[in-house]
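Appendix B. Raw example, untouched.
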Amino acid sequence: MATPRSGTSDPDKFLPLIPIPRKKRRPWVRFVMIGGSILLIAVGVAAGALPVVPGFVVAIPGLLLLGVSVPSVGRWINKQDAKLSPKWRRRLRPKAWRKGRRKLQKLR
């Protein structure tokens, strides 16, 4: 197997799905994010009972928002994401999202 050229990224290496914040957030911001995530999850569960709208479309962003606001949930989601095959991990990450995360990682 050939070694990658310098400056190129390893295609099998993925950034975490949810960035875990290093600093604690302000309490009111965290409270609003937790409230919004619980609301999105509740709407997703309620919409799942209806035959017209699939509930996971709303529940998944709620779970991701909960992972951003509560670091332990974010670590759990990242751990579950790491168990997926590379094919599914690539499907979870749109191309624009991957580019933006790489730029953000270089700035830090």
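End of appendix B.
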